[in-house]
Amino acid sequence: MFVAVKTFRPGDLWGGLSASALVLPQAMAFGIALWVPYTDDPAAAALSGLIAASCLCIASGLSFGTQGQISSPTGPTLVLLSGAIAVLNASGLSGEALVTATLLTVAIGGFLQLLIGGLKLGHLIKFIPYPVVSGFMTGTAILMIMSQGRNLTGGGEESLADGGWVPAATAAVTVAAMIWLPRWIRQLPGTALGLIAGTVAFHLFCLFLPGSVPEHWVVGTLPPISDIHVGVDMSYLPQLPWTLMVVSALALAVLASLDTLLTSVVADVSTGARHHSRRELMGQGIGHMLSSMLGGMAGAGTTGATLVAVNSGGRYWAGVITGTTFLLLILFMGPVATYLPISVFAGIILHVAVFSMLDKDILRWLKTPQARRDGAIALAALSLFGAADAWQVATGLGIASALAFADAIAVGIVLGTLAHEWGHFAGARWSGGIAPTRDVRTLFPIFDLDLQKSDPAAFRAMSVGGNVAHWAVVLAVLAFLPLDSPGRIALLASTFGFAVSASTTEFPIIGRAFRGASPVESFAGLTGDKLRRDRWIGAAAGLALYALI
Q1: What distance in Å separates the CA atoms of residue 184 and residue 189, rounded to the nearest whole number?
Q2: What is the distance, to the nearest Å, from the Cα of residue 379 to the centroid of all Cα atoms in its chain?
Q3: Handedness of CA 229, 230, 235, 237 (dihedral sign)
Q4: What is the rounded radius of gyration, in angstroms, for the C-alpha atoms of the chain?
Q5: Which value, to the nearest 10 degrees, does the dihedral of the CA atoms of residues 79, 478, 506, 276 take?
Q6: Could you tell me the residue ranges of all domains in the chain?
Q7: Do 300 and 288 contact (CB within 8 A), yes or no?
Q8: How many Å apart are CA 68 and CA 252, to the nearest integer?
Q9: How many other C-beta atoms are found inside a 10 Å radius of the C-beta of residue 529?
Q10: Do the beta carbons of residue 429 and residue 126 sit within 8 Å?
């Protein structure tokens, strides 16, 4: 990945510094949210977020893939990595073994992201339907909100009379400051204002405590840079669950790539330039591998910080300036973190989740009768599975396990089929194809592509869209569902088996279409025998994944 070095401009300095003020609190907050439940060391957890922001910004910046791109830990990558850690912990890992497995998962994810960029697969991200992205972001926001209960109560060890109200009040002040202060103080971003106001409020509140401030309410001194260990402890490698790690890493690579390229598109609109997806994703992959070797977490391009950098004059070198700033902060701000309350970072996470990630238009799908029907089918299927899975987890009865397994198989096929059909529809519409929907009483297909009036590219986009969508379902199940019961593993295996079956059928069609064949010619060889054979291939793949996990 050799590219011409871009010219440094003064705006890069101001853009990078401005973005640093925005990203700093968020990076520390996400690091704390990820690691504190497992390590009880908020200072090292905050450092993990700063290391990730520094490595990703510098590597991405030096790739010169997107003008003004700023990268750091993000909500989606936080939730996905938190789910991966929960699964690894449930598999029996703890302490240093758990840390090693998580860092290697980030490293593998970085390598896969490097491959996605190197093989020029980044353009496939655009075929993921908007409802999938919207639902994923909204679900991530809800999980982020739910994860902050412990930080809002200070661990729940102090009663209200003993000052147990302080963390929640501090978070409330932080959120209020992030909402209101930017209206009057425009020189600083909302996260920086929230950090300052929340910290001041916390120490004022603590004046009314009957005793001293509990140590677990504050971050504590950041470890010195000499304590950062390069690499991982190789002695744990034989006991690691590599299948779980690789699957989680694949989900992380795809999600981080999607998050980053969406930010790149936003940056292009502001700069008038055009990003280079191959270089950007390869830079992000290298950044993830470097971050993991230094003890950092995962991340992606961040829209808010990128816009701040661009509007402050930052272009190609803004990310490098931001990453270098974090390196200097790691070197010199260690003692300052002693005064930073964890509840302030909880407030920042709540603000990011509610105001930046919850999609206000997520219910727009109710306008379409086909979408209302399919949404109701998906909701009913998930409710049925949830009830069976809860019964199995609560009782452990054999009949409950069998029912949860059977429900998972059926629900996985239903979700995969729905996503597949809507992915086809999204691909056809996205490419400008004439694709009117069918009568709501017709279950499948949900639309007809007018091949006479549509460009041949619409058929190719339609074909690719369905496959991207059903694989997105597999990644969503992996990201949001802890694989700690037979039913949940079966749901992942079922969606995976459907995806393998559908892709085995449609990849040859897509290949012929991209080689210039007409739609009719592309379907050559698609017989009933082939469809049955592909279903058996999918079933075998699902059973193999179930057995491995």
Answers
A1: 11
A2: 23
A3: positive
A4: 24
A5: 30
A6: 10-357, 365-548
A7: no
A8: 23
A9: 8
A10: no
C-alpha to C-alpha distance for 177 and 183, rounded to whole angstroms:
10
User: Nearest to residue 461, comparing CAs of 426, 504, 413?
Assistant: 426
Instruction: For the chain, give the number of residues.
Output: 549
Can you tell me the distance from the alpha carbon of 71 to that of 120, in angstroms, rounded to the nearest whole number? 21
* Cα 260 to Cα 57, 127, 280, 435, 525, distances in angstroms: 12, 15, 8, 30, 39
Q: Which two tokens stand for residue 35?
A: 């690691």
Q: What is the DSSP string of 34-85?
A: HHHHHH--HHHHHHHHHHHHHHHHHHHHHHT-STT--EE--HHHHHHHHHHH
68 Cβ contact partners less than 8 Å away, ≥ 6 residues apart: 15, 267, 270, 271, 306, 307, 309, 310, 314, 315, 316, 318, 319
| Secondary structure of 107-119 as H, E, C letters | HHHHHHHHHHHHC
CA distances from 45 to 34, 104, 123, 219 (A): 7, 17, 34, 9
Taking each helix axis from N to C terminus, what angle separates 486-514 and 456-480, rounded to the nearest 10 degrees? 160
Instruction: Please tell me what DSSP assigns to residue 439.
Output: -
φ, ψ (nearest 5 deg) of residue 82: -65, -40
If you write DSSP's letter for every residue of 85-100 in order, what string do you get?
A: HHHHHHTT--HHHHHH
Place of tokens 């969606």: 495
235 CB-near residues (< 8 Å, 6+ apart): none
What's the token pair of residue 5?
Answer: 């070095």
Rounded (5°) CA angle 152-154-157: 135
Please state whether the peptide bond connecting residue 445 to the residue before it is cis, i.e. omega within 30 degrees of 0: yes
Q: Amino acid identity, residue 327?
A: L
Instruction: Give bridge partners of residue 341 from the DSSP assignment.
Output: 218
Say which residue the tokens 């109200």 belong to. 165
Q: How far is CA 59 from CA 27, 209, 260, 268, 273, in A?
A: 17, 45, 13, 19, 20
Residue 426 CB coordination number (10 Å): 24
- Asked whether the whole model's pTM tops 0.70, one would answer no
- Side chain identity at 120, as an amino acid letter? K
Question: Are the beta carbons of 71 and 60 closer than 8 angstroms?
Answer: yes
The amino acid at 242: W
What distance in Å separates the CA atoms of residue 358 and residue 91, rounded to the nearest whole number? 32
Mean pLDDT in runs of 10 for the chain (549 residues)? 63 82 83 85 87 94 90 88 87 88 94 91 65 67 77 71 83 92 82 88 88 79 71 83 88 88 81 86 94 92 82 84 88 78 85 75 67 83 86 83 89 89 80 73 72 76 85 82 83 92 89 82 80 90 87
Residue 91 one-letter amino acid: S
Give the amino acid at 14.
Answer: W
